[in-house]
Structure formats: C-alpha cells, structure tokens
Input
Amino acid sequence: MSPTTPLTKSTLLLTRLASLKLWIASALILVPFAWMFFASSAPISVFEVEAACRQAPPDMRFFTTAEGVTEFLDGCGSDGRDAYRNMQLADIFYPAIVGIFLASSLSLAIRRLSSRPGRALWLVALPLAGAAFDYLENALAWLALTSYPDPIATSHVLGVASAVKTSTSWAAVLVLVAAVVAIVVQAIRSRLPGATAEAPVASELADELGAIGSAR
Output
C-alpha cells in the first residue's frame, strides 16, 4: 500500500468534486444567489452599490489602484459605503459557491473525457484559486472600509488580488468551455460511421489538458 502524501490527498479531493449531486446542489444555490447579487435591487446587490456610488465597486474591476479605492469610498458617501458594506456581507458566501460549482463542473467534464485524467485533474484547482483570491480581495476591501477615511497600505494589494482572481476564474471558465466542446465533439463522432477509429479524440484532449496542468 503506497503511503498517503499531501499530494495524493489533494488529488483525491479534486477527484471527489466530480460528483453530480454536488454539482446539482451548487447550481441550485448559485443561480438564485447570482441573480440576487448581480441583477436584483436587493440591499446586498452590486446594483445597489453602483446606484449609490455612481460607479462600479473595486471588486467588479479588473484592477484598482490604492488611490482608486480611496476615491471610490469618497464618492460613495455614507449611504454608498453602507451599501458596499452590505455587498461585502453577501460576498462572504459567493466565492465559495461559484468556486465549488466551477470546480465540480471541471472535474465532471475532465473525468467524462478520460477515466484517468492524470495531471489534467489539477486544472480543477483553478476556480478554487480564484475563490481564494476573491476572499483575499474581500478581506482587503473590509480593511479599506474599516480604516476609512484614513487610507490603508493594504489597498495597494487589493487591485492585484482582483486581477489574479479575475484571471484564474476566466481561465477556469475557458478550460471548462473547451472540455464541454470536446465532450460534444466526442458524442457526435461516436455516432458517425467508423467512430471506433476516431475514439482517441477525447483521450488526446485529456492529454493536452494534462500538459496544460503540468505547465502551471
């Protein structure tokens, strides 16, 4: 019996995310939560912050300088800062919800392409990394709020956390789209004459995904 290492434990965790029950549960939570967070006029919504502050919050931008954070809080006024604080309360849950949903989606898709995905499975960590940087961004936003009107040095890092969060999250979405397209192509080819000769397509894509994962 091979010894259990932190690497094998992490791989096992990523494998367990390929659960249809987990995917359905996270989707059922994500859809209404995302609507309330982005599209509704609920007190915790981004819409309320943009209406009160007349600009997008730093969390919704790719990058914000420390000066930009201060200017945003200045322009919000008391009501806008209260709305931003309410949004941050909701954002305690959103990164975990979307991170689990994307990770489960990726894990299911990669396992569908290959029963032995190897290093490609580590691409499932992309949305989890995005969620981690989202929480870092939120923590820095809370520090900026609590120290206002005095500027705080950690605001210099907030924009970096936002950029890394956005980059890793979009990378996860692009990998997921590529995997879904490959699954569709595999399903179409399996129904064509001579499909058995073309079966290696999915495993080849899994190998390519594995190469991407090993390069990270």
Summary: Helices lie at 6-16, 20-39, 46-53, 66-90, 94-113, 125-147, 155-190, 201-215.
